[in-house]
């Protein structure tokens, strides 16, 4: 309707007579929506599909390296990721017959955590203790018995930690409601952190990878680095109803090995024609603290009689062997101890520092040399089966993360052997 100059109209009526098209309304709506966005475009994720690596704009420096992200990257993208607090403790004299030797530190979470972080109990959320005497780990076919090579009884006496194992539950009716209440969804990356060593965070990362999440990550340096680099801390615990989401990804069970598969690889000699396609069993064993300060060479620990062809070494020796190939000789990492989850990790070389400090191809070469000259990388056809019963598979998951960072996809963690 229009008004003539002789008709009555309010003084401001003529300002409403401008004709707007639907294109103008659409442009205004887009402008209003863009102002609601919390991050500039260079810091936005441009792809949230199923990718192995998180794709970000090239103008956003400091992006993810393999399975790790830095504190600066997390501070920039804190509002568009899901953060899991997995702080806990595991004793250096870990024994699965005594559950008190490991714990989840929920009290530390209540005293302060990364803003928006959700606490994940690495011992009970999607995982459960299983008695090896009468049941196998969830999702496996094993009966927990010893190998038929005749050395099973002696192995049981030498490794009493075989009696119980912490196994991930792969039943969707169990883990889906648990992690949906913690905000797990495929359209948001997940960053897991612990006190700083990355060992417990590596297990939760592997657990999410096993559940089929496309973009799980570990915060390099964990809670200690977050505070050291000026990160904020909050006491607020997010409401589960607010975080609830829908998660319908299929589990990626090839990242998990059965005990029978591990024992077969550890007792079977690869033929000449299988030199580049065989399966290698890697058993990570404890290392005394006194031997940590030795030279950066692999410690050839003795393997159980039941696993004659397994590659046995300690996780700290693997880290030292990789760092020894660097130009600095690894001198600044001589105090690596591997698993110290509730102490000050200052000066300790974690696997996350190795991922962030070494390029992918170089890391693949270093890992191959440390594992005895086995080819590692995207072109390798070797399948690695990783086990570390002495620390609830924490070391095995960390080695799996190193292989993942090196571009080697054919690996699996065996929680018991």
From TrEMBL:
Entry-linked PANTHER family: SULFURTRANSFERASE, THIOSULFATE SULFERTANSFERASE
Species annotation: Volvox africanus
Region annotation (Disordered) ranges: 130-157
SMART domains: RHOD
Ranges of residues in domain Rhodanese: 94-235
GO molecular function: thiosulfate-cyanide sulfurtransferase activity
Record's compositionally biased regions (Gly residues): 139-153
PROSITE patterns in UniProt: RHODANESE_1, RHODANESE_3
Entry-linked InterPro entries: Rhodanese-like_dom, Rhodanese-like_dom_sf, Thiosulphate_STrfase_CS, TST/MPST-like
TM helices/strands, residue ranges: none
Cellular-component GO terms for this entry: mitochondrion
Keywords of this entry: Repeat, Transferase
Protein's name in the database: Rhodanese domain-containing protein
């Amino acid at each position: 309707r229009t008004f003539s100059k002789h008709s009555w109209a309010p003084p401001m009526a003529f300002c409403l007579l401008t004709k707007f098209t639907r294109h103008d309304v659409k442009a205004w709506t887009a402008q209003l929506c863009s102002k609601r966005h919390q991050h500039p475009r260079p810091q936005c994720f441009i792809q949230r599909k199923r990718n192995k690596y998180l794709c970000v704009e090239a103008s956003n420096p400091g992006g993810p390296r393999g399975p790790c992200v830095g504190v600066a990257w997390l501070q920039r993208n804190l509002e568009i990721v899901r953060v899991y607090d997995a702080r806990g403790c595991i004793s250096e004299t870990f024994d699965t017959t005594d559950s008190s030797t490991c714990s989840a530190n929920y009290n530390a979470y209540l005293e302060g955590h990364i803003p928006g972080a959700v606490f994940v109990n690495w011992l009970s959320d999607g995982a459960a203790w299983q008695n090896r005497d009468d049941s196998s780990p969830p999702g496996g076919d094993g009966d927990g018995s010893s190998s038929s090579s005749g050395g099973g009884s002696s192995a049981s006496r030498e490794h009493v930690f075989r009696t119980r194992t912490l196994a991930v539950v792969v039943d969707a009716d169990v883990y889906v409601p648990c992690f949906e209440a913690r905000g797990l969804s495929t359209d948001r990356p997940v960053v897991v952190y612990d006190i700083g060593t990355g060992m417990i965070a590596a297990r939760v990362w592997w657990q999410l990878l096993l559940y089929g999440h496309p973009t799980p990550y570990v915060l390099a340096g964990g809670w200690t680095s977050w505070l050291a680099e000026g990160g904020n801390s909050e006491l607020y615990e997010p409401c589960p109803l607010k975080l609830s989401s829908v998660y319908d990804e299929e589990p990626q069970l090839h990242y998990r090995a059965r005990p029978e598969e591990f024992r077969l690889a550890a007792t079977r000699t690869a033929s000449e024609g299988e030199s580049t396609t065989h399966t290698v069993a890697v058993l990570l064993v404890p290392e005394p603290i006194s031997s940590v300060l030795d030279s950066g060479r692999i410690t050839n620990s003795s393997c159980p009689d039941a696993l004659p062809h397994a590659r046995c070494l300690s996780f700290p020796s693997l880290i030292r062997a990789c760092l020894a190939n660097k130009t600095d000789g690894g001198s600044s990492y001589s105090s690596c101890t591997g698993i110290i989850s509730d102490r000050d990790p200052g000066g300790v070389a974690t696997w996350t520092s190795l991922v962030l400090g070494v390029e992918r191809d170089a890391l693949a070469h270093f890992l191959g040399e440390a594992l005895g000259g086995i080819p590692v990388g995207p072109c390798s056809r070797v399948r690695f089966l990783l086990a570390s019963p002495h620390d609830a598979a924490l070391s095995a998951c960390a080695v799996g993360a190193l292989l993942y960072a090196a571009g080697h996809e054919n690996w699996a963690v065996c929680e018991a052997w």
